[in-house]
Amino acid sequence: MHNAKRSFTLLPLYNSVSLLAANTQSLVHRHISHSPPAAAALMTDTKLRTSRMHLLFMLPLVLEVLSISMSHNFTYDCTCHLELKIAICTSSNFTHLPTALPPLTEQLDLSLNHLSAIRPQAFHSTRRLRVLLLNDNMIGVLADGAFSLLEGLLRLDLSRNRISFLSEGFSRGLGSLRDLSLAENRLTSLDSSCFVHFDALQRLNLSHNVIETIKMRAFGSMSTLRQLQLNSNNLTILKNGIFSMLRNLEVLNLHHNQIHYLDVGMLSPLTSLALLDLTNNNLSTIQFKTFLSLNTYSTHIMLQGNPWDCDCDLQRVFRKLCNVKRLFLDDYDNLTCVNLDESHRNYTMKEEFCVAEMVTVLVITMTVVITVVAAILMAEKKRKTKNKEKHWTEVGELACASHD
Fold first, then answer.
1. Nearest to residue 203, comparing CAs of 221, 240, 183, 178?
2. What residues form the membrane-spanning segments (predicted)?
3. E strand intervals along 244-399
């Protein structure tokens, strides 16, 4: 395997030396076969000297290339497929980027190494890269303009590193990038300037970080984004304006955060949203308008694993949501309540857990009605009694009037 890898660097030189030796030997034999014996002997000696001179001339070049080849890890620790324009340098214990990469390389795999930093314009010798895999390293520093020369890059994988901060120049030069993974790093916040040059990005994976805050317009340049993975972070509140430019977003994954509040209008810009995953958060209640603002053709919503504070108001909200034809609560039957007593702790949202409250309301209503009716009857009875017990003077006057 090592010989095959080494041949990438040495094969052109080896071919040149072999061709030179073969041509020299061919010329010697050709001239000897057509010359008299004495002349042939002299010519043989002359040609052999010339051949040796050529070989001696090439020897320093051979030794230099051998020295260069031995000094670069790439020769021995990377596998190159020139016809496919692929360089695989995975699991090679690199601590720095190899410098002897083929300039026409389009796919470079540097995963599972020990890289700790990416310097400015680090890939100046491989500007034609379309796929760059840097996952599973120890990268903690991404310098401004580290990828600025990779204008044709389509996929960048930086997952499972130690990145805690993205500078303003992180996205510089990556206007063609479509797929970016920063999963399983140490990001705590997303500033409004770290993604400004991602004009063509379609998939962004930010899962399994420790993100607590997302600044307004952090995704402002991502009008083409279709999938956003923000699951397994420390988000608590989603405010209006965070997703204001994501009109083409189809998948929004927010499961396993600490979200306890959703602004009413924060979902309204997501006019293409097909899947919203809010499972395993800290939501205890929601507002009907929050999800009604989703002006989509069809959206599947997942809400299981939240500590729902079940009451009749929340149940009415969910029932109204179930009647919205464009919204699908895929796990509605599995939404459990946490605020009920032990005997009802496993009640689901669809059950009539608020029957007692309804009965109480009904009893109160009936009591009020009965009280009102009783009051009316008592008033009527008093009126009739009063008419029967009129004063005797009124009766006498009536009698006298009749005699007259």
1. 178
2. 358-379
3. 251-253, 261-262, 275-277, 299-302, 327-329
pTM for the predicted model, two decimal places: 0.72
Determine what percent of the chain falls in helix, strand and coil, rounding each to the nearest 5.
35, 15, 50
What the block records as the tokens of 165 is 């901060």
Phi first, then psi, for residue 288 (nearest 5°) are -60, -40
Backbone angles phi, psi at 302, to 5 degrees: -120, 125
Contact call for residues 174 and 198 (beta carbons, < 8 A): yes
The single-letter DSSP state of residue 342 is: G
SS3 at position 252: strand
Per-residue pLDDT of the chain (404 residues; tens, 9 = 90+): 333 343 344 334 434 444 444 454 554 455 445 555 554 444 445 544 554 454 444 444 443 434 334 333 344 579 988 888 999 999 999 999 998 889 999 999 999 999 999 999 999 999 999 999 999 999 999 999 999 999 999 999 999 999 999 998 999 999 999 999 999 999 999 998 999 999 999 999 999 999 999 999 899 999 999 999 999 999 999 989 999 999 999 999 999 999 999 999 999 999 999 999 999 999 999 999 999 999 999 999 999 999 999 888 898 999 999 999 999 999 999 998 887 655 555 666 666 556 555 555 666 788 888 888 888 888 777 777 776 665 555 555 555 555 55
H or E stretch at 24:
helix 2-33
Is residue 263 within 8 Å of 286, Cβ to Cβ? no
As a whole number of angstroms, the distance between CA 183 and CA 205 comes to 6
User: Looking up tokens 């030396």, which residue turns up?
Assistant: 17
Rounded CA-CA distance 186/166 in Å is 11
Angle at 381 between CA 380 and CA 382, to 5 degrees: 90
